[in-house]
Design goal:
homodimer; mainly alpha; 71% helix; disordered C terminus; DNA-binding
DNA sequence: GCCACTGTTGGACACGCGCACAATAGCCTA
DNA sequence: TAGGCTATTGTGCGCGTGTCCAACAGTGGC
C-alpha cells in the first residue's frame, strides 16, 4: 500500500471509529484495530492523534455536505432541491453522524482547530440553503424577505430538534424532527403546506457510503 | 465542616472546574485541588465521579430553570409570562451556562447519569412552555393546535440558534437569537407581531449569582 | 543475490484516570 | 481525661491513554 493510500486508509478507519464512538472516545488503538494493523503505524503517518481526529472530522462533515449538495444539484427546481435537502439530511436521521456534530460543538470552545472546521462547515450548510432560497425567490415560487436569516432559522430548528432526538433518545419522535422542520421552512418561504414533502423511497439516504 | 456543607462544597468546586474545563475534562483530582483537599474525600461523599458531574450539572441547570420559572410566576398573564421567558432565558446570553449544555448533550451518549439529568431538565423547560401555552389558549389570547409540539419547536429553535452563537462566536448575532425566537413563537401561537418583545431593562438577567 | 530503504510491527514507557483502603486526625460524648 | 466515631488523608492498584523505538519484513535498485 502506497504512502498516500495508507494515509487515506488511516483517515477512513479513524472516521469509522469516530462515527461509532464519538470524537473524544476514539483512541489510536481503536483506529489500528479497525485497520487490522499496529498502533505504531498511525504515528508513522500522523504527528499526533489530535491532527488525525481533526482531519477525520472534517472528512466526515465534508462528505455529508457534498452528498447533500450533489443530490440537490440533480434537481433544477428550487422547491425540488429543498425537498431533497430535507430528504437526504443525514444529520437528523443517522445518530452517529449527528453525535459527531454534538462532540464538535462542545469541543469548539477548547480546540481552535475543531471550531474553525465546525464553523466553516455550518456556514457552508447555511449558504447551501441561502442559494436555494434566492433561486426560489428569483423564480417567484418562494417569498422570503431575509434569505440569510431564514436559512439560519431553518437549519437551527433542524439541529435543535435533532439534538433532542439524538442526545435524549425519547423526547422527540424522529419523524417529527423532519416534518416539523419542513413545515417551518414552508412557513418561512411562503410555500403551500406539503410542498416540501418527499415521496417515500426504498433506497437508503445519502452519506451511507461513509461506513461505520 | 458538616457533612452537608462538605457535600455542597464539593458540588460547588466540581461546578467551578466544569465551567473552566468542560464536563468531560473534569477529574477527581481537579475537584480536590479546587477545594484544597485530598481526592479520596470526594469518593467518601459520592459513589462515582459520574454522579458528581451529573449533580453539579443539575445544580447549575436547575438554578437557571428556577430563576426563569420564578420570574415568570410574577406575571399572571400568559403573554407576559412568555415575554419574561425570553427576556430571562439565561442559556442564550451567558456563554458559560450554554457551554455546559453543549457539554451535557455531547456527553449524554457516554454518561447515563448526565443523559438522565439533561433529558429531565430539557423536558422541564419544555413543560414550562407547554403550561404557559395552555394557559394562553384557555384564556383565548393564544391559538395553538399542538402545545406540546409547539413548545419543542420554540425551545429547539432557541437552542439551535444559541448553539451557533456560542460555539462559533460569529455566525449569528446574539440579538437575532432572541428576536428570531420571539418572532417564531408569535407565529406558532398566532400572536400579533411584537407581542412578546420586552422593554429593555437595566438590571442583569437571572442566574448571574451562579458564579463561574 | 546482496544491499539499502522504508513500511510495519509489537511492546515498553510515562502519565493520568477512577477508585479503594488502611492509617490518621480531630471533635463530641461520657 | 478517656473512648469512640467519623471526616480526612495519602498511597497504591489496575487500567487505558498517546507516544516512542528497536527490531523485522518485503521490495526495488545495483
Amino acid at each position: 500500500m502506497s504512502p498516500h493510500e495508507r494515509r487515506e486508509a488511516i483517515v477512513t478507519a479513524a472516521l469509522s471509529v469516530m462515527l461509532r464512538k464519538g470524537i473524544a472516545a476514539t483512541t489510536v488503538r481503536d483506529v489500528a484495530e479497525q485497520m487490522g494493523t499496529s498502533s505504531g503505524l498511525i504515528h508513522h503517518y500522523f504527528t499526533s492523534m489530535d491532527d488525525l481526529l481533526a482531519l477525520a472530522f472534517e472528512r466526515a462533515a465534508s462528505q455529508d455536505l457534498d452528498a447533500t449538495r450533489n443530490a440537490m444539484a440533480a434537481d433544477g427546481d428550487p422547491v425540488g432541491r429543498l425537498t431533497i435537502f430535507f430528504a437526504t439530511y443525514a444529520r437528523a436521521e443517522q445518530d452517529w453522524a449527528f453525535q459527531l456534530w454534538l462532540d464538535a460543538w462542545a469541543e469548539a470552545a477548547r480546540r481552535p482547530a475543531v471550531r474553525a472546521t465546525s464553523e466553516r462547515l455550518n456556514v457552508a450548510w447555511q449558504q447551501l440553503l441561502v442559494e436555494t432560497i434566492q433561486a426560489g425567490r428569483e423564480s417567484g415560487v418562494m417569498s422570503c424577505p431575509d434569505p440569510d436569516g431564514a436559512a439560519w432559522r431553518i437549519l437551527s430548528l433542524l439541529d435543535g430538534l435533532a439534538l433532542q432526538a439524538v442526545a435524549h433518545r425519547v423526547s422527540i419522535d424522529r419523524r417529527d424532527v423532519i416534518s416539523w422542520s419542513i413545515a417551518n421552512a414552508e412557513t418561512e418561504l411562503s410555500l403551500p403546506a406539503g410542498s416540501l414533502l418527499a415521496l417515500p423511497v426504498a433506497t437508503s439516504s445519502a452519506g451511507a457510503s461513509m461506513g461505520g
